[in-house]
Amino acid sequence: MAEIGQDIFKCKEILEKGGLVAIPTETVYGLAANALNPDAVAKIFKAKNRPSFDPLIVHTDSLEKLKSFTTSLPLDFELLLRKFSPGPLTLLLPKRESISDLVTSGLPRVAVRIPNHDLSLSLLKSIDFPLAAPSANPFGYISPTTAEHVNKQLGDKIDYILDGGPCSVGLESTIIGYEGEQITVYRKGGLAIEQIESVVGTVDVLDYSSSNPAAPGMLKSHYAPNKEVLLLPVGNTINFRERCGILRYSEFSMDVEKGSQFVLTEKKDLIEAAQNLFKGLRHLDGLDIDTIYLELVPDEGIGRAINDRLKRAAAVV
Ligand code: TXA
Ligand code: MG
């Protein structure tokens, strides 16, 4: 198991030596290494068992530093950054030479974001390199929203876990980039599409099922628990299987034992539902059951990103 604490100086030392540190962000915990050190970045892929074709997001703490990783920042993106950063927004931008091909998996764009968490921002300010960080989970499994989640699954592969408490958003960042002239959402996430559109007008949204060569990591089977996962048909009653559990939006079902259910938000608050989503999936995955049913949530605001994750969790590999 890794050491867990709040020692930023220790994180800085480990990262400067090319080690791995799990960091808290407002979205999910990240598994961080010096983005300018290919040996350090290679350790991330190894620890997560992540294929090298799946590129990493580069994290930094200021607009000025972010600009130094790209050859150009379109005006609309600068407006979005000014409005929503630090925050759950990742931009795909043409990369500068300094960012290694290992980070971008050889793609011409680099993904960058400024996470909104005090501890990680302090850490990023204290170092003179950006941090490459995917979510701190084994490849294909549910993202971690607490230090304990990270420790359980990757604790023996990480030098230190910076504990920033439970993540306030609970879903990964929204990823956007340009397809030609059109701003496109590649991954729905913690920043609602409506909020982005309020600044830049209508955007294109790639669905979870789209074949999406620009973002090779967005496989349908992501976020999957280890049990069989099925989507509940909307409004339909079904014959539930034996030994099953359900992830529900706001109220318990009468059809399944209460102890095998997880309700995301009794007060029908989508923000709270997002905060509890991965915790709920983990909880159900840990029960002595064979099947997990998932109920979709209202498809608006951050609910669209929650439904995206539910559909991916239920997708058959
Ligand atoms: O909220 C988040 O974004 C979290 C926290 C830790 O910042 N990070 C995260 O990273 O979710 P990860 O690696 O689990 O997901 C990043 C996604 C992957 O699906 C990857 O394919 C895509 O971003 N991506 C990264 N760099 C890219 C690039 N240069 N071009 C296209 N897609 C990219
Ligand atoms: Mg991930």
Note the topology:
Elements: E1 3-5, H1 8-16, E2 21-23, E3 30-34, H2 38-48, E4 57-59, H3 63-67, H4 75-84, E5 89-94, H5 101-104, E6 109-113, H6 118-126, E7 131-132, H7 147-154, E8 160-162, E9 174-179, E10 182-187, H8 193-200, E11 204-205, E12 228-231, E13 244-248, E14 261-263, H9 270-285, E15 291-294, H10 303-314
Parallel strand pairs: 1-8, 2-8, 4-6, 5-9, 10-11, 12-15, 13-14, 13-15
Antiparallel strand pairs: 2-3, 3-7, 4-7, 5-6, 9-10
Helix pairs in contact: 1-6
Threonylcarbamoyladenylate binds at residues 25, 27-28, 30, 54-57, 88, 90, 92, 104, 107, 109-111, 115, 133-135, 172-173, 175, 214-218.
Descriptive report:
The chain has helices at about 10-15, 40-50, 65, 75-85, 100-105, 120-125, 145-155, 195-200, 270-285, 305-315, and strands at about 5, 20-25, 30-35, 55-60, 90-95, 110-115, 130, 160, 175-180, 180-185, 205, 230, 245-250, 260-265, 290-295. The strands form two sheets. Strands 1-8-2-3-7-4-6-5-9-10-11 form an eleven-stranded mixed β-sheet, with helices on both faces. Strands 12-15-13-14 form a four-stranded parallel β-sheet, with helices on one face. A hairpin with a 2-residue loop joins strand 9 (about 175-180) and strand 10 (about 180-185). Mean pLDDT is about 95; it is low at about 210-215. With about 325 residues, the protein is α/β, with parallel strands linked by helices. It has two domains: about 5-205, DHBP synthase (Alpha-Beta Complex), CATH 3.90.870; about 230-315, 3-Layer(aba) Sandwich (Rossmann fold). Helix 1 packs across helix 6 (about 120-125). The chain has ten helices and 15 strands. Helix content is about 30%, strand content about 20%.
